[in-house]
Amino acid sequence: MKMSLTDPFLLTPAEAAAADRETDASGIPIFHLMQQAGFAVAAEALRHFAQAERFVVLCGPGNNGGDGFVAASALRRAGANVSIHLAGRPEELTGAARLAWLEAQTPAQSFSSYQPHPGDVIIDAIFGAGLSRDVPPEVTDLITRVREVGCPVLAVDLPSGIDGLTGQVRGAAFQAQRTVTFVARKPGHVLMPGRIYCGEISLAPIGMPTRIARRHARTVSVNDPRAWKAAINVQQGDTHKYKRGHLAVFSGGPSHTGAARMTASAGLCAGAGLVTLASPPDATLVNACAMTAVMVREIADLQDLKMWWASGKISAAVIGPGFGVGEGLRSYVHASAARPMVLDADAITAFAERPDELFALAAGSEPRQILTPHEGEFARLFPDLAADKTIGKLERAKRAAERAHAVIVYKGADTVIAAPDGRLLINENAPAWLATAGSGDVLAGIAGANLAQGIPAFEAAAAAVWLHGEAGNKAGVGMTAEDLIRHIPAALEDLLSWCRL
């Protein structure tokens, strides 16, 4: 089994600042952390940019600039050609950054005086993770000049211009080839587009005790098995199909059955003991001819559905893929509201004009619904949150989950999983080729299978998103949704083997 798991531990910029202060108060000075950070940057520069004719260190007025001063001094001692450019005047520096400047004993030039040349390697130590406003014009101009010449950029903590909390570009940002960060990654390293702007990321220890850092990490983590391993059902020798749950998937009409069939097949491959495709009468023959291990049951109307639910044989449901938008779908959701349920695609759009009706169905109970909107569906269901440019994807997902009383899987290259109680995970294992028709239907089926097996909604959603990404990696470039389904068992075997450890 080969499984690469990066450290899920993330610190928001505010949490990182609080951890710095506690570390300083514990007897480990900020200046010591700064020195270790600067040494790590210099080592990274020498290791990966040996071809540099000159290292140009761009220093901001805060602690990120202090890291840059230390790195410049270390590079000069190593025999490198180094030039320092500073935002503002040296006499305006304070605290540990001023100490680092005094130790550097090197004159600094202004940003405006720097003209990039081929052969320069930029060490970007201007702003780091704490940036929460647009970069000033002089930095925008500098970014433009560096980009035009094509100088490689090594970013300190985060590329200047990337918001450390949201991953968004604040006006303009350096495109780094590599980024060195410290103690833990920030959300801006994992969220888009920050993830792309960072290039390759190295995580350097700088002497901060892990116990202090982890004490302040309260907001968000990367989505990987360590976040939900305890909730996963590792199959034992005495298991049988009824113990593994019975998943219902609802099909659309005769010309719209493909999405639901993919959802049902994915649910079966992902571990549900039984899967039944609930089919309208005019689509029953189409579905029956196409399915083998998945059962097909004719559900003609709401009365049929209520009788099926009353039988007590269904553990969870997925509704939405290919179903069609309208009152019929909403009535099915109302009739199914007491069950664990994944609402995907049409089931989200159907409530776009009356979202409070949907949210009221899950109020006052443990979350049992998983909503899986992509960007457009999220905007339809939560238009005010989608339009609020003052908040990032994490905050939008968090508020949406609280409002909906449901787990939100806010899909994209940086899918965010949010629980009504405030838990947040960012997924990062999904390959770009998952962006293909039917991929979301497969994800809904995996999540439904997890719910059917009794996994709580947040953990069911998070595990489904991760497994979906792993199956995509195994399927490879050019995969289709059908390929993705075929690779679920191998990804699941890797996951279960890891969970047994």
UniProtKB/TrEMBL annotation:
Signal sequence coordinates: none
Reactions accelerated catalytically: (6S)-NADHX + ADP = AMP + phosphate + NADH + H(+); (6R)-NADHX = (6S)-NADHX; (6R)-NADPHX = (6S)-NADPHX; (6S)-NADPHX + ADP = AMP + phosphate + NADPH + H(+)
Keywords in alphabetical order: ATP-binding, Isomerase, Lyase, Metal-binding, Multifunctional enzyme, NAD, NADP, Nucleotide-binding, Potassium
Binding site for (6S)-NADPHX: 63-67, 128-134, 157, 259, 322, 374, 441
Co-factor remark: Binds 1 potassium ion per subunit.
EC number: 4.2.1.136, 5.1.99.6
Superkingdom: Bacteria
Family annotation (Gene3D superfamilies): 3.40.1190.20, YjeF N-terminal domain
Record flagged with keyword Zinc-finger: no
Function in brief: Catalyzes the dehydration of the S-form of NAD(P)HX at the expense of ADP, which is converted to AMP. Together with NAD(P)HX epimerase, which catalyzes the epimerization of the S- and R-forms, the enzyme allows the repair of both epimers of NAD(P)HX, a damaged form of NAD(P)H that is a result of enzymatic or heat-dependent hydration.
Oligomeric form and interacting partners: Homotetramer.
Name used for this protein in its record: Bifunctional NAD(P)H-hydrate repair enzyme
Organism expressing this protein natively: Rhizobium helianthi
Gene (UniProt): nnrE
